[in-house]
């Protein structure tokens, strides 16, 4: 760490960097959520299914996020674990209109939470109940029940659920506020 | 001085100049964990990536697990915005893609870079992306690839085109759809884009000749800016000309000729080379046709650029091999190149001159070469030696100069290949030119005095044994040979003993001395040498000419593998009668030699033949012969094996009984036993909608022949070959054993579905198909045998069963054609190299030796003469054999 960095961190104005992992089933809206945060000039006009993963960088309220946008397609889900080790937060995106696959989403979340890299750390987990604008969308409470967030698995981790609409950006700000607060809290606790 | 010191220091430190020396895979992979750190340290990670790439390129292999770990760690580096690091990552992806698993995970991120704003990323991202994609994923990125091909940045476009070319290998169908984009790229102003686009277009259309010719016609009309594209176009045009076999009025040829006036040197050279290759490959060329190309090359010879000079002189050298007259015009320019500072150019210039030059210039050129021959590499020395070999056959009178030069080369340092080439050349000159024999042999003798290559020494000793006794003063070679016995290793000693024995067998006055030497060799430390010495001593001690020729001079008439097999069978099943070597099938020694003769280039074929006979004489090949394969095949057919026909005598080459590409293709192989013939019909059904059942061949046998057994083929499916066997007993009278049989293929047809091959219905109908006649000729019943001393063998058989006759061969009007026809017709081995007719002679004596089935030896002496009054060749034939009826058969057959 250079002298300038030391000085900066002493003064508390050091740039805050953090890695977050964005996961969820396919077609839940992960890339669209991230697209919303990007600066207007580098926004994608149309979002295509991600193959593998993609890295997005954006700044939200003084925190520089590096988001690992993982593909949600079945064949890539087992590759998520390669990126667990160095993230400071997880965004789990759920398609709240897809009642049928809510059980699948729960299974994937359970596997994620049971993974040794995640289990041992108190990572903040932000669940986005996306596509809430759709008419048959489930309410966040139903989603919490469906995913089993009210059970013991996540009791040692801070978590939050936010109902969002990634196309318009409704509700995203609230979720992102919570996440950046939690991560800053974690960072300062570690020092 | 300072540089000298530096060199020395480097030597001491063991090449410390390379920072990546002594890298270890494990430690580098350990370091690669730094990729997971946040934030990324670009400098450090670039270093580590370089190390990984270095290791892979040095041949280190990563396991799938290691590679996958490194790969996923590497994907973390995408969060860094450092340009250098990112480009290293692309390289890393390309290198690890074939080893690591799940590499498609980077598809999206590479697609983002490839379409992004950073131009530095785009070409490299395209290449990396194409390295990780497979056919299924390719569809997802197809749209981006199409855009990239027509991108306005040349580097991007090039990367996309080249990557498409690579992907053609596994997903040609998808790449084919990008024709329009490639077409657009051909019109690009950038030279590389144009070149790659043309390459891709050609690759896509490669299989469709019409499309290719359309492409070429179109491109020749527009002027290609890129010289590389023009070169490629010339190559494509050449391939088209070769495939279409159009004459000299082909429009493509016109285009290639017009390229000789192109403004770029590379295109001019490509065109000249293409013309030379095209013209020399067709046999009938005059020097006039090569003229334009050669004159362009001549201009290049005086170019200041060494690469151009080299290319020109190399191509001229190639032309000189087939068409020396065409190059003669360049002689003056080539003379200037002899003193070129670049040795490669000088060597090629000299060898070209040697091929084109007149006899008078040989001495001067040899002197020139001698000045720098020690400075050039072995590879070029072999080229020089090859040129000298050609000279030797061209100017036999110059053998003195050439021999002296070759022997001085032999004394120099050089590898085995180089020395072997020299020895070969000397051997060729000796065999072609009797005057050079004595000098050549003494040079070779001197050479083996100090020869480190065992194989070469053995070969020369064998040659000495063969040629030495027939020289004027055989005794002078004995000292050289015996020196080998004293000084060399076991295999050379053994060869020397064999050579000595040959002297003893042929030179009566040396026999006592040889016997003394052989007696000494019996005390040798090596088994093989002792065995040989004892064997030869015992035979020579008998002082019988017949024994000598049978057991010393003539090689073993059977192949070692078949002899071993026969002896093994004999020991398994002991009987009271002694083992008979006649029951072993004879070796087809000249068959392979002849095949090589056909395959070999016209220039070198003669030496190849000589060499191959050598090799076979020295060590009969250890692989199973063709005969053994057939014998074991026949033994597996129960009804043939049950007849107990004895050992297989000869199997003919397959002969076609149908036209090629007919409904059914039938080939016949004749297996001759001592009293029987087995006809093997290999049938193939080429109709996909038919299934043949119960296939058999109906044969009409002439009187005296008897059909003993028939093995039909139960089922003949589409494109699967089946075999029908027929066993015939030959007539008792040998003179009746020639015949022709009318054959008809009979079978039951069942129509079937072409796709599945299953028959449509249960019932079929009988049908037949006429085949061409099966001929049983003399050649089928005679096996070739090599006799080193024909005259002695001739005397041995004696005139008891001699028959002679004179024939007029009107259909032939050249001696060498006549020789070839007679050899082929009788199927015998030409002895004493009489199958070669010296040019310009009007008479020739052909000596043939063979064994008739049943083990009767046959010798034929023919005298051929061109008759001036009548058209054609007159042949006087004299046959001697161990059985009168065999002689009769042969004279009868020729008539």
Automatic annotation (TrEMBL), chain A:
<dbReference type="GO" id="GO:0005930">
    <property type="term" value="C:axoneme"/>
</dbReference>
<feature type="binding site">
    <location>
        <position position="50"/>
    </location>
    <ligand>
        <name>Mg(2+)</name>
    </ligand>
</feature>
<comment type="similarity">
    <text>Belongs to the small GTPase superfamily. Arf family.</text>
</comment>
<keyword id="KW-0479">Metal-binding</keyword>
<dbReference type="InterPro" id="IPR005225">
    <property type="entry name" value="Small_GTP-bd"/>
</dbReference>
<keyword id="KW-1003">Cell membrane</keyword>
<keyword id="KW-0449">Lipoprotein</keyword>
<feature type="binding site">
    <location>
        <position position="72"/>
    </location>
    <ligand>
        <name>GTP</name>
    </ligand>
</feature>
<keyword id="KW-0963">Cytoplasm</keyword>
<keyword id="KW-0472">Membrane</keyword>
<dbReference type="GO" id="GO:0051649">
    <property type="term" value="P:establishment of localization in cell"/>
</dbReference>
<dbReference type="GO" id="GO:0005525">
    <property type="term" value="F:GTP binding"/>
</dbReference>
<protein>
    <recommendedName>
        <fullName>ADP-ribosylation factor-like protein 6</fullName>
    </recommendedName>
</protein>
<keyword id="KW-0519">Myristate</keyword>
<dbReference type="GO" id="GO:0046872">
    <property type="term" value="F:metal ion binding"/>
</dbReference>
<feature type="binding site">
    <location>
        <begin position="130"/>
        <end position="133"/>
    </location>
    <ligand>
        <name>GTP</name>
    </ligand>
</feature>
<keyword id="KW-0966">Cell projection</keyword>
<keyword id="KW-0206">Cytoskeleton</keyword>
<dbReference type="GO" id="GO:0030030">
    <property type="term" value="P:cell projection organization"/>
</dbReference>
<keyword id="KW-0460">Magnesium</keyword>
<dbReference type="GO" id="GO:0003924">
    <property type="term" value="F:GTPase activity"/>
</dbReference>
<feature type="binding site">
    <location>
        <position position="31"/>
    </location>
    <ligand>
        <name>Mg(2+)</name>
    </ligand>
</feature>
From TrEMBL, chain B:
<dbReference type="InterPro" id="IPR012295">
    <property type="entry name" value="TBP_dom_sf"/>
</dbReference>
<dbReference type="GO" id="GO:0006886">
    <property type="term" value="P:intracellular protein transport"/>
</dbReference>
<feature type="compositionally biased region" description="Basic and acidic residues">
    <location>
        <begin position="1"/>
        <end position="11"/>
    </location>
</feature>
<dbReference type="GO" id="GO:0005783">
    <property type="term" value="C:endoplasmic reticulum"/>
</dbReference>
<feature type="region of interest" description="Disordered">
    <location>
        <begin position="1"/>
        <end position="22"/>
    </location>
</feature>
<keyword id="KW-0931">ER-Golgi transport</keyword>
<dbReference type="InterPro" id="IPR002553">
    <property type="entry name" value="Clathrin/coatomer_adapt-like_N"/>
</dbReference>
<dbReference type="InterPro" id="IPR032154">
    <property type="entry name" value="Coatomer_g_Cpla"/>
</dbReference>
<dbReference type="InterPro" id="IPR011989">
    <property type="entry name" value="ARM-like"/>
</dbReference>
<feature type="domain" description="Coatomer subunit gamma C-terminal">
    <location>
        <begin position="779"/>
        <end position="894"/>
    </location>
</feature>
<dbReference type="GO" id="GO:0072384">
    <property type="term" value="P:organelle transport along microtubule"/>
</dbReference>
<dbReference type="Pfam" id="PF16381">
    <property type="entry name" value="Coatomer_g_Cpla"/>
</dbReference>
<dbReference type="GO" id="GO:0005198">
    <property type="term" value="F:structural molecule activity"/>
</dbReference>
<dbReference type="GO" id="GO:0006888">
    <property type="term" value="P:endoplasmic reticulum to Golgi vesicle-mediated transport"/>
</dbReference>
<dbReference type="GO" id="GO:0030126">
    <property type="term" value="C:COPI vesicle coat"/>
</dbReference>
<dbReference type="GO" id="GO:0000139">
    <property type="term" value="C:Golgi membrane"/>
</dbReference>
<dbReference type="InterPro" id="IPR009028">
    <property type="entry name" value="Coatomer/calthrin_app_sub_C"/>
</dbReference>
<dbReference type="GO" id="GO:0009306">
    <property type="term" value="P:protein secretion"/>
</dbReference>
<keyword id="KW-0472">Membrane</keyword>
<dbReference type="InterPro" id="IPR017106">
    <property type="entry name" value="Coatomer_gsu"/>
</dbReference>
<dbReference type="InterPro" id="IPR013040">
    <property type="entry name" value="Coatomer_gsu_app_Ig-like_dom"/>
</dbReference>
<dbReference type="InterPro" id="IPR016024">
    <property type="entry name" value="ARM-type_fold"/>
</dbReference>
